[in-house]
Every structure is written in C-alpha cells, then in structure tokens.
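Ticket closed. Logging final result for DUF305 domain-containing protein.
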Amino acid sequence: MHGRAGGAVREVKPVRRVEWVAGSAVVLALLFAGVATVASARGDGSGADRAAPAPHTPAVDSADAGFARDMAVHHQQAVEMSFIVRDRTKDEEVRLLAYDIANTQANQRGMLLGWLDLWELPKATSGQPMGWMTAGHEGHSAKGMDGMEGMGTGYRAHDGSLMPGMATRTELDRLRSASGRAAEVLYLRLMTEHHKGGIGMARGCAGLCTVPAEKRLARGMVEAQQSELDAMTGMLAARGAGPRS
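Final structure:
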C-alpha cells in the first residue's frame, strides 16, 4: 500500500534509490507497534492508572476476532514476499512498491494483533481459517457482499497456502530462486493474487465486524489494495506480462 490507507497510488518513478538499511528492524518495530501501544494503554497499576475497559469486547469466535487473526497471517506473508523480492531485483519501481507494502502491512498487522491483546483473545485458534465469514456471525450474513458468500468455507489449504490469495511454499521457493525481471514478474503476479484474497477478507469484515475502528481499517484496506492492484497491472504490462491465468 502506498502511504495512507485508501489514498491514491502515487506514480512510481525509477529515479529514487530505495534504501532498505536496517529494513528488518524497521518492519519488526512496526509489527509490534500495535501490541506495544495496547499494552501501554492498559497500564499495570490499579484504580486511576488502569485504562477503562473497551466498550465492546468481541467473542473469540466473532468476525472481529477472526478477521484480526486471519488478516495478521495474510499480511505476514505479504511482508515476507516483499523482503524476498528486495533481494532478488535492483529495479527501483518494484523495490519501492515492495517497501511500501512491507511497511504498511507490518504496521496494520501490529494493530490487528494489538486488538486481540486488548480483547484478551488468542492470536491463533484451531478453527478453520476464514470460518468467521460464514453466515450467522453476530446476526449478520456474508451473503450478498460483492459475491463473497461462502468464501470462508470453500477454500482448501494446501502447500502452506492457508487462505485465498496466499502463495504456496513452492511459489515462495520459486521467488527466492528467481532474479531480475523474472523475480519482478513473479512477485507482481503473486502479490496481485494476494491482494485479491485480502480484499475479499476485508470486504467480509466491513460487512460482518462490529468494532468501528476495525471496520474502518477493513474499508481502507479494500480501497488501498484495489489501487495497488491497478498499479501492479500496469507494472506487469510494462514488463510484457499479465496477471497469473
């Protein structure tokens, strides 16, 4: 994502060298920013030192909690792919896109994990990924949300791909082995599919989640990732390629 969620995708110009100095440390710091912020807000004292309880605490099987858990996993792979392509190409346009995606999604992942910490809910469950998108959560139904009905039940995890859009272990190995234009095209194709899956989940939360801040974040994800999809379509075309068929 580029800049603020929901903002227009700025034109990427290959005139600026993307410096990833201490990139891993930056992303890790963003990754835990949400968790650290929530922990600080809680306080460790009593009385006036203790933060007021959240006005609404979602249940462990709610759409709010399910989206936070699943999107945190989904985002983590986007960060991983972006760091892989950083080392596999010198193309400034692709490296800048990857840098923006890594930073934005690591930051959002920290927020999602922070909410789970605030709600005192587990960050992983034994349930089916995206099961929260099925009908019946908190009086809502996923049916009718841009054709997303049943999205949480029809996907079969395979080769490390747990949710729609996620790359498989085999595909990640291919990305690690590629270089130059081949790595750029493969990254853009994998990230295109990844964004499509992420948009589907975000639309699900926008319709099913009940925590206002989380619904706003989900809507912002839809807008920003759709803008990035449009940008990646152009980047693929410029490299004589198209989305994965």
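Residues 180-208 form the longest helix (29 residues). No further action required.
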